[in-house]
Description:
Blueprint: E1 11-13, E2 28-31, H1 42-52, E3 56-61, E4 68-69, E5 75-81, E6 83-88, E7 94-99, E8 103-106, E9 112-117, E10 122-127, E11 136-137, H2 140-149, H3 167-171
Antiparallel strand pairs: 1-2, 2-8, 3-10, 4-11, 5-8, 5-10, 6-7, 6-9
Pfam families: Cupin_1
Domain Cupin type-1: 67-149
Protein name: Cupin type-1 domain-containing protein
Amino acid sequence: MSVVRDRAEPLAIVFEDDGLVPNNILPFLVYQGAVKLDPKRPEATIENLFEANGWGGTWRNGVYDYLHYHATVHEVLGVARGSARVRFGGNHGQEILIKAGDVAILPAGTGHQCIKASDDFCVIGAYPPGAKMEITRATAENHAKALKTIPRVAKPPADPVTGRDGALMRLWR
């Protein structure tokens, strides 16, 4: 039995470089309600899905409440419990409510910051193979460095939600 709802198609948004947060020319993707969570083990449902699609280094936590991005790796965030309002794309980006069953895929450089979360909010994060995650704060110096590293970040071998034939493969060509 698949844990991914049929014909899951993500919302795709391209955030502009704002001078402090580089963002990416690749679209930020959000699958809304795409994952059918096991009510007894929602975290494991998401972890297993990501790992089955080749995304690893999983962790369980929330989203930091300060603006940051990752200039050396793409990141996926799967919501296992609760909900949160997260600003994606930096201070000039967009606030999006993500809730249990949603998955957000952030191309390298995409700014993100938790604005408000429910008490039970739990997100699973993961990364494609081969890259090291580093937290980067939005400063002019970091922005200049990120503009050099982001274009070198390899595209993932599969969509973390829908696999090798998933929307990410088509939308990130």
